[in-house]
Prior knowledge:
Layout: H1 11-23, E1 31-32, E2 35-40, E3 43-48, E4 51-53, E5 56-58, E6 65-69, H2 84-106, E7 111-122, E8 138-149, H3 153-166, H4 168-174
Helix pairs in contact: 2-3, 2-4
Amino acid sequence: MTTTAPNGINVDQLVQTIEAIKDRPEIAQFQFRAHTTWEGGGRSHTEIQGFHGAMQEDTSRSQPFVMVGDEPPVLLGSNAGPNAVEALLHALASCLTVGFVYNAAARGIDVRSLYFDLEGDLDLHAFLGLSDTVRPGYQAIRVRYHVDADASHDQLTELCDYVQRTSPVLDIVRNPVPVEVELAD
């Protein structure tokens, strides 16, 4: 019998995935990929399709997902899409959403609504080459979540704490990740 939580999450499948990874840890290794092309000005076009996960190449996506990045006019762009630091806020909120809803389902918590408001503070001095002491990335990010669920305030706070400890994107934002950048031949 399949148990689908009101949150739309197949809890049985979630538990089976966890058990499979406990038995074979190598199943948990994934590699995600993106291909980005500059289109002029501040605009770029990113395609995301294949990835390697659960010990095989995934072919479930018949067409790539397309994401357009650009800058607002004040930063010399044409507003064709969010800029990269805005896309990061989206990635963070999306990851927190998945973690919150999946873990709520596993705990038997019915989430009726959930949304996040995010703000990031950024100083352009480093990006523009005007400072070697100002960090080029966000100086701070604030996340406020709003949830309507059949759980107490303490349960929701504990759930959010757990989600923060297990969120891949939050971890990427909070901790340095080795990144190699090289000119292709």
